[in-house]
Design brief:
The protein is α/β, with parallel strands linked by helices and 345 residues long. It contains eleven helices and nine strands. A nine-stranded mixed β-sheet has the order 1-2-3-5-4-6-7-8-9, sandwiched between helices. Strand 7, helix 9 and strand 8 form a beta-alpha-beta unit. It is globular.
Length: 345
């Protein structure tokens, strides 16, 4: 009997070398520009940019908490796309506050970052994913934004049974019809979120020259791709997300927001690090993560480390393993490493 297995053809095609695979023998600068152009094209960022519009910020609420001020506001990312955000500023009287942008993964929304329960079952996420509160404790002004396809930015057209924590499907596939990708739209939202901070920088003493970006799982994916696009991000700290395409999203069931049409023809995740280098990059993984396996993460990081060698800044990247941890965010490790990397000029 013949082996009627639909996956065999894809597994065989993954044996072919990507067209823009990293090689130490490449003309590095020429290769880097090829990666940049292909990244823009495949994520649809050139298409998204055509819908750009002037920044429009509207403050909805200001709450004076014991240790910080919390501002809820919306900004216009592109025509017809408003993004809700929370800005938390510590009350420690610094001359300037470094900024940490916080991206949730597939939780029920960005309210988790500020420690708020909104839905049944949020308790589990609140144990590990209060990113904005953790950033404030480390002295950062924290910005949490609601990513497209998550939380209150899910579409009512979704299957409601999955919409709260995996609400990306309809939005992701509709974006593909229009020459976009959902991950590209998320990258654009982060880009414009940084623009929105200009509205607050003087009153709240924000240091726009000291921006870090952190996210776990789907938020880690958006962190990595966003750092590739916006050079104002000085430290990127994606967790539980940076792995070879073959070992992760091609091997296991993942949310549709992870898939970028044709990207594996040209590169793996490691090659994209050339768009971040020589800026600082901390890649963290759970030792027993079942959907981003450690060996696939190591393979990608091997390419990342070679790229940083090419840039002459090997000290500007780190590979951190959370011992015995699954798909997990170790806040002490992540923020500790960000703090250390920022001190190393």
């Amino acid at each position: 009997m013949r082996d009627i297995n639909v996956d065999i053809i894809h597994e065989e095609l993954f044996n072919e070398k990507p067209l823009l695979a990293f090689s130490p023998d490449n003309d590095y600068l020429s290769w880097k520009e090829q990666i940049r152009q292909k990244y823009i094209e495949l994520l649809g960022l050139d298409v998204i940019a055509k819908n750009e519009c002037p920044m429009d910020v509207q403050i909805e609420e200001i709450v004076d908490e014991e240790e910080y001020v919390r501002i809820r506001y919306t900004f216009l990312s592109e025509k017809n796309s408003y993004v809700p955000a929370y800005l938390l500023v510590p009350k420690t009287n610094k001359d300037k506050y470094p900024i940490c942008i916080c991206l949730q993964g597939h939780t029920t929304g960005f309210h988790i970052s500020i420690g708020k329960k909104k839905y049944e079952g949020d308790e589990r996420s609140l144990e590990t994913s209060t990113f904005a509160l953790d950033a404030v404790k480390h002295g950062y002004a924290a910005l949490a934004i609601e990513q497209r396809g998550m939380g209150i930015r899910t579409t009512p057209r979704n299957d409601r049974g999955r919409a709260l924590t995996c609400g990306c499907y309809h939005t992701a596939f509709t974006a593909l019809l229009l020459g976009r990708t959902l991950i590209g739209e998320r990258v654009w939202d982060v880009h414009k979120a940084i623009d929105s901070l200009d509205f607050f920088k003087d009153k709240y003493k924000l240091d726009l020259d000291d921006i870090s970006l952190v996210g776990n799982s789907g938020g880690g994916t958006a962190t990595y791709y966003s750092a590739c696009f916006d050079k104002r991000i000085k430290v990127a700290a994606p967790t539980c997300s940076i792995c070879s395409y073959r070992a992760s999203i091609a091997e296991f069931w993942h949310c549709s927001c992870n898939y970028i049409p044709r990207i594996a023809q040209y590169m793996d995740m490691g090659e994209l690090a050339c768009l971040i280098a020589p800026r600082k990059l901390i890649v963290s993984v759970g030792e027993v993560d079942s959907i981003f396996p450690l060996e696939g993460c190591k393979k990608v990081y091997n390419v990342i480390s070679q790229i940083y060698e090419k840039e002459g800044k090997p000290e500007n990247t780190r590979f951190v393993i959370f011992p015995d941890k699954p798909h997990y965010f170790d806040k002490d490790s992540v923020f500790g490493n960000i703090d250390e990397m920022r001190k190393n000029k």
